[in-house]
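fwd from M.: "can u put these together and see what the complex looks like"

so here's what she sent:
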Amino acid sequence: MKNDQKEKLLKMEETLWSSVKKTSIIFPEEGFETRVMRRIRVASGEVSSNFLELLGERAWRMVPIAATFLVIVSLLAFFNSSQEGEDWITLMTGSGVHLEWLMGEGEML
Amino acid sequence: MDVLSLKDDQLIQEALGGNESSFEELVRRYKVGVMKVVYRYARDAHEVDDMAQEVFLKAYFSLSQYRCKAPFQHWLSRIATRVALDHVRWRSRRKENFFSEMAEEDQGEWLEGVLSFLSSESNQESEVNQRDRARLLESILGELSPRDQLVLKAMELEGQTVREISEMTGWGESAIKVRLFRARKKMRKILGKRCKQAEIPL
């Protein structure tokens, strides 16, 4: 390899390293100590790592997702019913059972 | 007992006696230091988290082997280095990187874009080409051995000295110097090969 080629490669190499140096460190989210201690307890056999237990601990995280999902489904059903003139609760439940009795006789949403 | 006021040695003794909150305090004190060692070898924040957890797990179960001669941070760094090295080995076996996962017909075009930027004099910055350069570097390093990757990253990215790398890995200083020299040479060769592949004149 010629000297000028070598120099060019060296310069390219330097630029490569310097571009990566500028990237910032992304530290993980909070609760790190808790996760470490949990893994230690699991590894020591003090706590079982069974799925249901994990699910129980994390179930509260599902609440906002479930609530958002319900709101979206309700809105879709409501707009759909207002276009077709149907009872939106019937559409939402999808059961085909008329829920008119819930709203009082003859009263529709 | 207030663990915050205890020194490292006292916390270690407490943890060895089964006091979990003492070890938790050690994790709190040294998590950033450990993450700084492993994060250069991780792809994302989740991998950093996972590797750092692994380090503390290993540290917990081998705490009785720690002799208080060297600072606790050094001992942890050695464990972190071993975990990072295992991770690099695992990834090398899987040959997972952006470049190798790309379709062959796209590789040339992508390389041409990144390398022509690198070889040009007017290196105008942008976030996109910075990311691409990081990917290119990762793909080149992926062709080196895990130990070569480790010394190069420690030297070039962390700015560590040969002595510091030696303390961190337990390898001899002269062996590290030789490894660095050879790793740089290999890296340049691979870069030259990529330029040829993308038909970038040198």
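replying to her w this: Chain B is about 70% helix and 0% strand.
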